[in-house]
Every structure is written in structure tokens, then in C-alpha cells.
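Example is below:
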Amino acid sequence: QVQLVESGGGLVQAGGSLRLSCAASGSISSIRVMGWYRQAPGKQRELAATITSNGITNYADSVKGRFAISRDNAKKTVYLQMNSLNPEDTAVYYCNADISPRGRATFNYWGQGTQVTVSS
């Protein structure tokens, strides 16, 4: 059974940094796009950043220049380095990936989410 497990969230002061990790596990043939989305209280879930299997990245305008997404294909892990955090970055951050389980069609998976809280 394929799973995405996030870690690295927490409480940080404005101006600080956090690094999120998300590891995929299970019987996996390949992983295509991996990404991070976030959902603030009372708001819709929105894209933060994505990265393709060959390293092409895409960022929301709100995080450009502050966040950096990367991945380790051998470890089936995606990271989100978040710098210069501000209270508007407070949200639950969700890992997302297009995964092809062995012998099955590609499916879009979500992690359980990790809370990031930025205090002013």
C-alpha cells in the first residue's frame, strides 16, 4: 500500500526557517511530479511548490525566493526548505505525488498533512 508521510512541521517565529520532508513508501514503480500544497484556516488548499522527476520546479508567487523544493529520487523523498517565514505562511502543509504502484496505473496521492505555525 502506497503512503506519503510528512515530517518537519512545527512552531517558528517570523523570519525563521523550517524544512519539511515527505517520504513515499510501499510497492512503487515510479514517481512523477511531487509537490507541496497548503491550507490555511478558512481558506482553500493552494499550491506551494512542485518538482518533476528530472528536477523542474514550479512555485506559487507567494513563496518564490523564500521556499525551495527538492527531491531525492533514490529515497523517494521530497523536501521543502522554507525561509523568511511570516504569519501568512501558517497552514497545514500537504505532500502530494503522482505515483505508479507496481503493476497498477498512476494515481495521485496525498499525505496526512503537517502543521506549520509562524508566530509574529
Remarks:
- The mean pLDDT is 97.
- The two ends are 40 Å apart (CA to CA).
- The first strand starts at residue 3 and ends at 7.
